[in-house]
Specification:
Strand content: under 5%
Shape: elongated
Radius of gyration: 32 Å
Helix content: 55-70%
Distance between the termini: 89 Å
Number of strands: 4
Largest sheet: 2 strands, antiparallel
CATH class of the domain at 29-107: Mainly Alpha
Length: about 325
Amino acid sequence: MKFKPIILFFVLGSFLTGCGLFGDDEERDEFAGLTNEEQFYRRALDQLNGQNFNGAIATYQGLESRFPFGRFAEQSQIEIVYAYYRAGDPEAARAAADRFIRLHPESENIDYAYYMKGLSSFNENTGLINRFLPIDPTKRDPGRTRESFSDFAQLIALYPDSPYAADARARMIFLRNNLAAYEIHVANYYLERRAYIAALRRGQYVVENFQETPAVADGIAIMIECYLRLGLNDLADTSLALLRDNYPEHRSLEDGEFTVRTEITNPSLLYTVSFGLLGDNRIEPPLAPTKRPFSSGSQQIIDQQGQSGEEEDRSWLSILTLGIL
């Protein structure tokens, strides 16, 4: 009876030791035959060239954990960025590139780290679904587009003679065109909902900040539309002359005359509640008056609202439904 605790302790120790040996066996099987730093690096490079990117990532990580200050450590840290990128993990690729830039600011491969950082954001939205579905990238969130543009711009500013600079410039042109097109989509959204001031500002932003992009002509057309809707005919004429001189073939011009949109989005309550099954979604709003009042008209509007409030008594149904019914 005295030996039972000792036997139990011995059995438990053997079990824990066995579990530890089992884990070591798994690790030993994964890196079997690798005894030095160069062998780790050669295997990772073979896996990378054989497009076994997940295996290459594991081997690079094993190399760095065993030889953090070895002669292959810096090279493995830059190559794992590419392995993450090809494995379809752009977030990990960006993190690895940031880490390399922080640890090796004087490395001869630092320009490649900046390039891969921008490239990871550039291709983040190009997944399997996007290859088969007609998804317009200019209508999606431009956050990654701006990040990629900023990373490529930083590469060109710091290393203008880099072998990756030419490709980065070409990608920046593409990204800039997409950013301008995104602003046009937002402007059209506001315009269709009769938020003319917001749409006007978006159009002006494109004209002022995205020169030499295809979206500039659309930005001018949106400005003309908004000026006409707001009754600012002099500004509309100035913008129209600009559009005629620089983009005479724009789709909004017909024989030199500007074509105003006849319908805009204005979903009714019934249309919204029924998710578009009932009701109408389009109206034909009139243009603003061709002559502006001598004054701002604010007091006149206030007086008219006061008179209408005095003349009409709101029903209980109107009060309870907040004026909807």
